[in-house]
Amino acid sequence: MADQVFTFDVPTEIDKTVLGGKGCSLMQMSNIGLDVPPFFVIPCQTCVHYMENQSWPVDYEAKIWAALKKIEDATGRKFGDSAKPLLLSVRSGARVSMPGMMDTVLNLGLNDESVEGLAKDSGNERFAWDAYRRFIQMYGDVVLGVPHKNFEHILEGLKKKYSAAQDTDLSAEHLKECVAEYRAMVKKTINEEFPKDPKDQLIRAINAVFDSWTNERAVYYRNMHSIDHRWGTAVNVQSMVFGNLGQTSGTGVGFTRDPATGEKMIYGEFLPNAQGEDVVAGIRTPIKISDMESVGGVWPGVYKQLCDNYDKLEAFYKDMVDLEFTVQDGKLYMLQARVGKRTAAAMVRIAAEMVKEGMITEKEALLRQEPNKIGELLHKTFDPKAVRNVVATGLPASPGAGVGRVEFTAADAEARFNAGEPAILVRAETSPRISSVTMSQGILTARGGCSSHAAVVARGMGKCCVAGCSAVEVDEEAEQMKINGKVFKRGDWLSLDGSTGEVIEGQLATIAPVFSENFNLILQWADKYRQLDIRTNADTPADAKQAVAFGAQGIGLTRTEHMFFEHDRIYSMREMIVSETAEQRKAALAKLLPFQRDDFIGMFKALEGRPANIRLLDPPLHEFVSQEMDFAPLIKATGKSEEELRAFVDSLAEANPMLGFRGCRLGMVYPEISRMQARAIMEAAAEVQATGLEVHPEIMIPVLNHVNEMEAMRKLVADECEKVLAEKNIKVDYHIGTMIELPRACITADKIAEHAEYFSFGTNDLTQTTTGISRDDYNKFMPVYLDKSVYPFDFFQRIDTEGVGELMKMAVQKGRTTRPGMKIGICGEQTGQESVFFCQQIGLTYISCSPFRVPGARVSAAQAAL
Length: 866
Ligand code: ADP
Ligand code: MG
Ligand code: MG
Fold this sequence. Notes:
By secondary structure, the chain is of the alpha/beta class. The longest helix has 26 residues, at 582-607. The chain starts with 5 loop residues before the first strand and ends with a helix. Among the domains are: 250-339, D-amino Acid Aminotransferase, Chain A, domain 1 (2-Layer Sandwich); 380-511, Phosphohistidine domain (Glucose Oxidase, domain 1), CATH 3.50.30.10; 523-567 and 577-622 and 663-865, Phosphoenolpyruvate-binding domains (TIM Barrel, Alpha-Beta Barrel), CATH 3.20.20.60. Helix 17 packs across helix 32 (854-865) and helix 20 runs parallel beside helix 24 (671-690). The strands form 7 sheets. An 8-stranded mixed beta sheet has the order 14-24-23-16-17-18-19-15, with helices on one face. Strands 26-27-28-29-30-31-32-33 form an 8-stranded parallel barrel, surrounded by 6 helices. The protein has a 5-stranded antiparallel beta sheet with strand order 1-2-7-5-6. Helices cover 43% and strands 18% of the residues. The structure holds adenosine-5'-diphosphate and magnesium ion (2 copies). Adenosine-5'-diphosphate (ADP) binds at residues 37, 89, 91, 100, 104, 106, 238, 240-241, 251, 276-277, 324, 326, 335-336.
């Protein structure tokens, strides 16, 4: 593959791993009959070859010239010609889109002779010299490594000298002067003449695009999005078309639907008399495509054709398409198309509406959802009742509610983020340093449209962005900005509404989100196809309520220990811990009982009849005490001296608490603790059931190792439960099961299942005990391991299916041999997409995750079932 060149005239298999995304789209568009300037594609494999050998495959250059000949023939122009020169664009294009991360060179093939040819042929001398100027600037920057600002400096100087307000006010003569100065500056900077030979220009440009695969931005982007560094990029060499030939020409970008909201509309922007990156780079603020008709001249015709192309592209891609086009003298050319990036809201709306339009099926709609992005839809929005002090309005480039303190540089925004404070990044223009977008609450730019890099990147990351807000005057040096006369300094509070484009002074209040009709539809479809139940981890009634609102079918894990830290319960807890006799311990526990009962009453009510899996006390007791705590209450309650108490606290210390006196071992040694908890659960259940609500408590024994522990704990807990039920003369549907979090429990799951009615995998501890890695200590080596690919990923973020997963499989299989159809869930933190697939595969009953992940998990589970 590496030694091939793919030309526009030979139909080839559309394969992104070969042609890259951009190359595929060029091939596809010419296949469906859209006008695309002639091109050839150098495949990704050639880039890989180049990276490995620092050279091209044998005889590759000859193939390039043969392909170039085809473009010359198709266009009737000649590369480097002094009469009718062919100009080229050299464009990067990897197999996944990396907007703005790699390089493109336009107008290649110009030199002192061909520029004259271009001038004569176009009858527009100014245009020709402007193209030449742009070429030297772009090529100088991308290929020769001359700083961009050196060029800007010269251009600005000339504009001042000739009192030109804009670039377009410079005449052909001025531009000739500019080219001369550019060339002199280039020579001075790199100690080398600007290359004159067009072939030489092309070869170096191709290599520069290869090299841009490994530039810092691109590498960072790939790390962020887990893209393979070995793929390489394709290079697309294409005949140039010109959007800067006057008012009947122009350039633009569009989307077949609004990428922020998903609404079906003719969305996009264009700039008349402009070329290349002018729209994306946000140099001038563009005109909406939907207003194109009213511009008059050739534009109503172009608009019609564009609408037609929108339909053709959507019909072909069956998805929202992001497209780039250029109009030369009234003729429309398509330069790129791809499935567009979108916000979570748009992702949901587009998929749901395409199902309604009959374009895709429900299953396809579900498979297109990115479960991790669904979390964005659960984020807060501005409180509609809050008073908005709007200081300016820009373009609503990426929705969301951003509240933070103003910063003017990427570095400052990142520093503020690292200091734990929210930042709003304000920029005059749009420079895509992605890390700063990740770390900001929102982005505000003075220039640039909805297609500017900042906007694209913000949308991709679910960050709010207001773009092209011309009222904003940034003074980076003074570290302040003026908005309609009002001064904002670094650190001042600002709120951005990415849905309306409003810039709001101060910290606007936010509220919980509302689910759209389309979002509910997607979730309904997810519920229809998924087989796994989705439960939630919840320690408080508020969490449980939230999760139920998000669609949780019950609680998969309640950690009772959290309940002991609240208010003055901790004092009774400590009293219990320092008890010397069972009697003392029982007395302290009796104080805790009503608190626990109240907690459970709240949980059962919030669940409205759904099951609740409640884990008995798990952590070692010393976690509730410390030498730094206030000893006074304890001295008062126990009558012991401070020294005595301090010595006792010391005595609780363990060398390896994770493997120490915890979990069911506490209940085995101090049965009264487990009894108190079982009683609290059952009293609460009885009370709530008496109000007419259903209750289904599940009582879970933690850190279980041996069947004998299970048998003993089961007896103990059941005995207390039955006592309560007898006292109340009531029946409650309760179950006793265990957490499976030790390898031995997995291996002996068949025996344990004789006494456990259900299992729930605690994958955090199971991962620690299977891999022998302490999660609290792994920071010293895990980053190195991941860097060197010693481990394929962090086992605490994703289930290690090969190791831990095998034990889980064994436990499921053995458990169900003893107890067919046994309920088995998982309540670790590894409930990301890949882990959900695994859970489905090994036949779990449910997964349990934090409330805000419940909707995403519903979708993941559906995807796993499809
Ligand atoms: P990116 O991947 O950053 O979008 P592209 O390769 O698409 O880079 O090029 C950037 C811009 O250059 C395009 O949006 C388009 O306006 C311009 N461009 C690329 N190829 C051509 C061409 N053949 N003729 C005219 N303009 C072009
Ligand atoms: Mg592009
Ligand atoms: Mg555990």
